[in-house]
């Protein structure tokens, strides 16, 4: 599916009630060829007004964290488990996340990321339990490592679950863990680069077998 088609189907979506109260839908943005996909929670006020993900305070911190590992937001792709703002910034409901899953899956199928970074509990729970069929505990129990997950109908990816950047704005004690988890993105990239190198030399490609190759 083309990106414009996905945007259009999100614009016309009425699978949950969030479309009634939103200003603009927020499908996501970034590099359509990105290796790394970030999945956040839900648009907030700024995102709802602009139609762009992570443009408020949490977005500023996300950009700082990206820069700390040498990435710009234009190089990655950023979306959310729900594409419309929940009223008063309440947490998205499980049925809303599931209703929006058709769009999230279309985005994953289009981008074909090799690494997915889940930001916060809702996103981690969605990727692990809904797409990965794996048990999800809390962010604090799951974070701090790279998982190799087989996602339903979407193939295999490396998944790095971490806190939502907003958590570090409320509680600065969270920030070191978030920074540590972002360093795992570098580690994941290095792992992928090593596999690509050994494949180029005709050596066995264990993890590459595991990961879909980008077309
Ligand atoms: N928080 C999110 O989870 N997503 C956004 O787009 C903005 C804030």
Question: What characteristics describe this protein?
Answer:
single chain; alpha/beta; Uracil-DNA Glycosylase, subunit E; six-stranded mixed beta sheet; 11 helices; globular
Describe this structure in words.
The chain is of the alpha/beta class and 215 residues long. The protein has one domain (7-213): Uracil-DNA glycosylase-like domain (Uracil-DNA Glycosylase, subunit E, 3-Layer(aba) Sandwich). Helix content is 47%, strand content 13%. The chain has 11 helices and 6 strands. It has helices at 3-11, 18-21, 45-50, 57-68, 94-99, 101-111, 121-131, 139-142, 165-170, 175-200, 206-210; strands at 29-30, 36-40, 77-80, 115-119, 147-151, 155-162. It has a 6-stranded mixed β-sheet with strand order 1-3-2-4-6-5, with helices on both faces. Helix 1 (3-11) packs antiparallel against helix 6. The longest helix has 26 residues, at 175-200. It is globular and about 55 Å long. The relative contact order is 0.15. The mean pLDDT is 94.
